[in-house]
Amino acid sequence: MLKFSAIAGAGIAAVLASATAADAHTAQEVRYLLRDRGFYNIDFLDTNPRHYQVNACRQGERFHVHVNFYGEVTEQAPIGPCHRRFGWWHRGY
């Protein structure tokens, strides 16, 4: 019984350790997350893995966006209009 609880405890510790490591997002993953939410023209201002700061456009409006360690948008403030850009890589807002 003692051997089983030691193995179970080690398994739980391994799962918890991997869960926190898996929650960290790279700048590229944050870029993909923001694109999935409709943002484009994404410019990173701060690439600290604990708290990314980004300026990005969505529907013609430019936003200052904060993304936390878990990939969640924690702040989003409009900072002005986006300039219309033409080309196949932009949506043309």
Major sheet: 4 strands, antiparallel
Which spans of ≥5 residues are poorly predicted at pLDDT below 50? 11-22
Q: What is the N-to-C order of secondary-structure elements (H for helix, E for strand)? A: HHEEEE
Strand order of the largest sheet: 1-2-3-4
End-to-end separation in angstroms reads 64 Å
Q: Into which percentage range does the β-strand content fall?
A: 35-45%
- On the 0 to 100 scale, the average pLDDT is 76
Q: Which overall shape is indicated by the principal axes computed on the Cα atoms? A: globular
Rg to the nearest angstrom?
19 Å
Number of strands: 4
The number of distinct helices, counting runs of at least 4 residues, comes to: 2
Give the helix proportion (percent range). 25-40%
Structural class: alpha+beta
Oligomer: single chain
